[in-house]
C-alpha cells in the first residue's frame, strides 16, 4: 500500500474506563506491559512457570532457523497432566471443570477428578487400539464433553489430534484424514441441533470410503439413534472405555512435540493444516486466558460460546481454561433452541461471569431485540469478550449495555488459528475501552502496521498488520508443507509474519482491525474498509446486520454494494435504501455512499460465522455463484436471490 491515508476514518469517541472493582484486583497492570517490553524472552520464561514441567526449560525462544521457531525446547511436559492431574493433586478434584448443557435440556457437571479419570480411560483405550505417540487421531464430534475427553486423551499419549468441525461434510473430513495420515477416528452417533437429533456417523462412513488406512472408529453414543457399525472397525466409545482402568501414567514429551493440527477453512485451494506444538502453545493459551479475561479461577464461571471444532474452542474452551483450573460452561446447541433466550437462561443458571463469543452472535441478538436478554438475571457477568471478526462499535455498545448491564468491559481479541492465542486485545481491568478497537498488542507480543515497503505507518494511517517477533503459541509450520508455510506467512515481508489483515492506528496509536486485506475496497482511488461501512450501516436504528462488498465498476474501480438485514421491528418503507445511503454518506463521507443497497432476509456465512463476501460479490457483479460448499446453509443464497428486484 503506497497510499496509506484512509479517507474514511470513522470518529468513534465513546470511552469506557475499567470498573474500579476490577482495577483493584487486576491480573495485568501497566507494569506487566513494561516488563514484557523490556525483555520478552524473560517475560515468557516467567509465564512458562505457570505450567508444570517434567524437565524445566532453560531457554525461551530458539530462532536459529527462521521462520521455524522453537520455544522452551529443552523442557518436557504433558499437556493433559497440566490440564487435569496437577489440579487434582492440588486438592481441586471436586471443582467443576465443565457444566455441560445439552440442547434438549439435559445437563451434566464434570469435576476435575471425574474428567481426569475419563481421560485416563480414554488414553488407555486409544493405546489398546495401537495409537502411539506421534500418530494422528481425527475427532469429529458434536459439542459434548467426550470431545474434550478425546482431545486430552490424545494429548496425554502424545498423539496429535485433528479436530474436524462436526458441521463439516464427509468430503471435508476425508480430505483432512488423508492429508494428515489419520488411522483412528473418534465420532458420535449424532448430536442435537435445532431441536432434533442429527446424525454424524453416516458422514464418517461416507468419508472412510476414501480413507482405506483408517482401521478403528470409536463411536460416542449421544442421541441413541439407529447407527450402522462396521464389524472389526467400529467400537462404541462406552464399551472401549469401560474395559479400561481409570489410572494412567502420563509420559513427558519434549516441548516441541506436536499437540494438534487444525485445518483452516480454505478460502482458496486445499485447506491448510496449522501445526501447534505442546509447550509454547500451553504457555500462551494459559497465560492469555488468565490475563485477557482477568480470570479468577476460584470464582469465575467462564463460557466460551464457540465450537470445539475451531481454534477458539481449542485455546479457550480446552487448553487455556483447563490449564488454569477454570470452571467452564459447554453448550451443545444453537442460540435459538428452544427459544431466543437460551444463552441468557444459561448465563443465569450457571452464574456465568465471563462470556466470550463472536460479533455475528451479538448482531443476531441485536436483531432479536434487547427485551429477550432483559428477561434474565445477567448480573453475574463481569467481563465480555469478542472474537473472530471486527466488532462494529454499535454491536460493542449493545453488548456492553444489554448483556453487560453497562458495567462490563468488552475485550475485542484479535488472533488467528495460526497465532494460537490472543495477540491484540484491551485488558478489562486496565484499558479504557474504545468500541470497535482491538487496541493494544498483548504483553510480550510485537505487532506493527506497515505500508507496502514494510515501513511502520504513522498514527492516523492504515496499512497491513504484521507480527514482528515470534510468540510462544505460534504455528510451527503447515502440516507436511514447510514451503507453503514460508510462502504464506513469511514471504510478503522479510522477517515479518504477514497476517493478511488490514489495520489502522488511530491518533493514540491504538490498533483497529479493518478486515482481511482482500476485503479492502478501492473506490475512485480511495481505500475503503468493508468493516467501516458495515459499522455505519449497523449504527442505523433500522439495520440489524450488514455486509459490504466491492463490486467491479467501470468508473470507480470498485463500487460499494451493501446487503442489509433490517431489524424485526423496523418499518421498511420504499425509501429505506435512500435513507441508508444518505446515512452512510453523512456518517463516513459521500465517497462511502453505497452504489446500491439490497435488503435481504439472510446473509451467507461460513460455519465459523464469517460472512462469505465472495458470494455476495458474485451477486453484486451478476455472476454465476461460486463454490457454496462451506456455507452453513446453501439455501440462503436462493433466499437472497429471490428477494432481489433484478436477480441474475
Ligand atoms: C481471522 C482469523 C481467532 C479465532 C477465530 C477466528 C479475523 C479474528 C478478530 C478481531 C477483527 C478478527 C481476522 C483474522 N479476526 N479476530 N477481534 N477483530 N478481525 O480464527 O478462522 O483463524 O480467522 O479472523 O481476519 O485474520 P480464524
UniProtKB/TrEMBL annotation:
Biased composition (Polar residues): 1-10
Gene Ontology cellular component annotations, sorted alphabetically: cytosol
Residue positions, PTM N6-acetyllysine: 610
Domain AMP-dependent synthetase/ligase residues, every copy: 91-471
Cofactor(s) it depends on: Mg(2+)
Catalytic activity: acetate + ATP + CoA = acetyl-CoA + AMP + diphosphate
Annotated residues for binding of CoA: 193-196, 312, 524
Positions bound to ATP: 388-390, 412-417, 501, 516, 527
EC nos: 6.2.1.1
Keywords of the record: Acetylation, ATP-binding, Ligase, Magnesium, Metal-binding, Nucleotide-binding
Protein name: Acetyl-coenzyme A synthetase
Natural source organism: Auraticoccus monumenti
Amino acid at each position: 500500500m503506497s497510499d496509506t491515508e484512509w479517507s474514511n476514518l470513522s470518529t468513534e469517541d465513546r470511552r469506557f474506563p475499567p470498573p474500579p472493582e476490577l482495577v483493584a484486583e487486576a491480573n495485568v497492570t501497566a507494569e506487566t506491559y513494561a516488563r514484557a517490553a523490556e525483555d520478552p524472552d524473560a517475560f515468557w520464561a516467567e509465564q512458562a512457570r505457570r505450567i508444570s514441567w517434567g524437565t524445566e526449560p532453560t531457554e525461551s525462544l530458539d530462532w536459529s532457523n527462521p521462520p521455524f521457531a522453537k520455544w522452551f525446547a529443552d523442557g518436557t511436559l504433558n499437556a493433559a497432566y497440566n490440564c487435569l492431574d496437577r489440579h487434582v493433586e492440588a486438592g481441586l478434584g471436586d471443582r467443576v471443570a465443565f457444566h455441560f448443557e445439552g440442547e434438549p435440556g439435559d445437563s451434566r457437571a464434570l469435576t476435575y477428578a471425574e474428567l481426569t479419570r475419563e481421560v485416563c480411560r480414554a488414553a488407555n483405550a486409544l493405546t489398546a487400539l495401537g495409537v502411539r505417540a506421534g500418530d494422528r487421531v481425527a475427532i469429529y464430534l458434536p459439542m459434548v464433553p467426550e470431545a474434550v475427553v478425546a482431545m486430552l486423551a490424545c494429548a496425554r499419549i502424545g498423539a496429535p489430534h485433528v479436530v474436524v468441525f462436526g458441521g463439516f461434510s464427509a468430503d471435508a473430513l476425508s480430505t483432512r484424514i488423508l492429508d494428515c495420515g489419520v488411522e483412528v477416528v473418534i465420532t458420535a452417533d449424532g448430536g442435537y441441533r435445532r431441536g432434533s437429533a442429527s446424525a454424524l456417523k453416516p458422514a464418517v462412513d461416507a468419508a472412510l470410503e476414501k480413507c482405506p488406512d483408517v482401521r478403528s472408529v470409536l463411536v460416542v453414543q449421544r442421541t441413541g439413534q439407529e447407527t450402522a457399525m462396521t464389524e472389526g472397525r467400529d467400537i462404541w466409545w462406552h464399551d472401549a472405555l469401560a474395559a479400561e482402568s481409570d489410572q494412567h501414567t502420563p509420559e513427558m514429551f519434549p516441548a516441541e512435540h506436536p499437540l494438534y493440527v487444525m485445518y483452516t477453512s480454505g478460502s482458496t485451494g486445499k485447506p491448510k493444516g496449522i501445526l501447534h506444538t505442546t509447550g509454547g502453545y500451553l504457555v500462551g493459551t494459559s497465560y492469555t486466558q488468565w490475563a485477557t479475561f482477568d480470570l479468577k479461577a476460584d470464582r469465575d464461571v467462564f463460557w466460551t460460546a464457540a465450537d470445539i471444532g475451531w481454534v477458539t474452542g481449542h485455546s479457550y474452551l480446552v487448553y487455556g481454561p483447563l490449564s488454569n483450573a477454570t470452571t467452564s460452561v459447554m453448550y451443545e446447541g444453537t442460540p435459538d433452541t428452544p427459544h431466543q433466550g437460551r444463552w441468557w437462561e444459561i448465563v443465569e443458571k450457571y452464574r456465568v461471569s465471563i462470556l466470550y463469543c463472536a460479533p455475528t452472535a451479538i448482531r443476531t441478538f441485536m436483531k432479536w431485540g434487547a427485551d429477550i436478554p432483559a428477561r434474565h438475571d445477567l448480573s453475574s457477568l463481569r467481563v465480555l469478550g469478542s472474537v473472530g471478526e471486527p466488532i462494529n462499535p454499535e454491536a460493542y455498545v449493545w453488548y456492553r449495555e444489554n448483556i453487560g448491564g453497562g458495567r462490563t468491559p468488552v475485550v475485542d481479541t484479535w488472533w488467528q488459528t495460526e497465532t494460537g492465542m490472543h495477540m491484540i486485545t484491551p485488558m478489562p481491568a486496565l484499558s479504557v475501552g474504545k468500541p470497535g478497537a482491538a487496541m493494544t498488542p498483548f504483553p510480550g507480543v510485537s505487532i506493527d502496521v506497515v505500508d507496502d515497503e514494510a515501513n511502520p505507518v504513522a498514527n492516523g494511517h492504515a496499512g497491513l498488520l504484521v507480527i514482528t517477533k515470534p510468540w510462544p503459541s505460534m504455528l510451527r509450520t503447515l502440516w507436511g508443507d514447510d514451503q507453503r508455510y514460508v510462502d504464506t506467512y513469511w514471504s510478503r515481508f522479510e522477517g515479518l509474519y504477514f497476517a493478511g489483515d488490514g489495520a489502522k492506528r488511530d491518533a493514540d496509536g491504538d490498533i483497529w482491525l479493518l478486515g482481511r486485506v482482500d476485503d479492502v475496497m478501492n473506490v475512485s482511488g480511495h481505500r475503503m474498509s468493508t468493516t467501516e461501512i458495515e459499522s455505519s450501516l449497523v449504527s442505523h436504528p433500522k439495520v440489524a446486520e450488514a455486509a459490504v462488498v466491492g463490486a467491479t465498476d467501470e468508473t470507480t474501480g470498485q463500487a460499494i454494494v451493501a446487503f442489509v438485514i433490517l431489524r424485526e421491528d423496523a418499518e421498511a418503507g420504499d425509501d429505506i435504501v435512500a435513507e441508508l445511503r444518505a446515512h452512510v454518506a453523512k456518517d463516513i463521507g459521500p465517497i462511502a455512499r453505497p452504489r446500491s443497497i439490497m435488503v435481504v432476509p439472510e446473509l451467507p456465512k461460513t460455519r465459523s460465522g464469517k460472512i462469505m463476501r465472495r458470494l455476495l460479490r458474485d451477486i453484486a457483479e451478476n455472476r454465476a455463484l461460486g463454490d457454496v460448499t462451506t456455507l452453513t446453509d446453501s439455501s440462503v443464497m436462493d433466499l437472497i436471490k429471490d428477494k432481489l428486484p433484478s436477480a441474475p
